[in-house]
Amino acid sequence: MKFLNSPYSFKEANVVFFGVPIGKRFSDGAKALRQTPVYMEDFDIESKKELLEGVRVVDAGDLKPKNNEDITKYTRLIVENNKIPVAIAGDHPSLFTIPAFKKDIKVISFDAHCDLKDEYEDDNIVDLSTSWNGEFDARVNGATWLRRLSEIIDPKNILLVGVRSCDAKELKFIEESGITYVSAQDIQENKEAVSKVIEEFTQNEDVYITLDVDVFDPSIAPAVHQPEPDGIYFSQFKNLMHAIAGNIVGFDVCCLKPIKGNQITEFLTTRALFEILSLVKK
């Protein structure tokens, strides 16, 4: 099954949806996000608009990369053809997709976790990560990817949104590096101030979004790898998305872990996908 059952070819499309096989259960999440849109309306009753109007999506299927550079090369192909890359993965593919953009872009990470550890390893992270050479890398995985990205791009071009889990070393790194962050509590207590932060951060800029589904509260998104209490809700996410004052040039969605017999998280994630797609540069 293809995402949105799209009839478009690569040449006709302005958005390219593709899977990146990161994580041992990657295929479960990818399959769910390809099936769920069949049951959903893309009409938004509040704006009275079709969210996907003008959006022509082609589903290129799942990549079969031999290494991380293959992911970057394919993303670059999409970007060079003036299309929007949309990657779905078991864990953040951003470390490999973002380098495909030649000029500086702003990166917004919607995530419960900072993912800024210098090294990390536990059983859950091992399951989430893919090692192309058969060996787990404690420096390149779901808990460290943003730290590695901050070594490639200017940390001041990174904004963390919805975080509520980190350690003291990560917080110190944030403060010293110039990364901007707003916590889930910040969003709950002063959404107007947070919207202003996002607006100023993205003003007239090209923006890449990485959406880790665990940014949402577990009560509305239980099917994630690492649920954290006291997360954000969809209405808050929607408001923050509309605060973006730049051009969305690419995004990815990750960390969905389907629960048999419970599709709450899949429907939420698909609706979030629709919301982002409604804002992409036409």
Overview of this protein structure:
The chain contains 10 helices and 10 strands. An 8-stranded parallel β-sheet has the order 4-1-5-10-9-6-7-8, sandwiched between helices. The chain has one domain: Arginase, Chain A (3-Layer(aba) Sandwich), CATH 3.40.800.10. With 282 residues, it is of the alpha/beta class. The mean pLDDT is 93. Helix 9 (234-241) runs parallel beside helix 10 (264-277).
Taken in chain order, the helices and strands follow as: EHEEEHEHEHHEHEHHEHEH
The helix-and-strand class reads alpha/beta
Distance between the termini: 25 Å
| Percentage beta strand | 15-25%
Quaternary state reads single chain
Please name the CATH topology.
Arginase, Chain A
The beta-strand count equals 10
What is the gyration radius calculated from CA atoms?
A: 17 Å
Biggest sheet strand line-up? 4-1-5-10-9-6-7-8
User: Could you say which overall geometry the principal axes of the C-alpha atoms support?
Assistant: globular
* Uncertain segments: none
Say which CATH homologous superfamily is assigned.
Ureohydrolase domain
In helices, the fraction of residues equals 25-40%
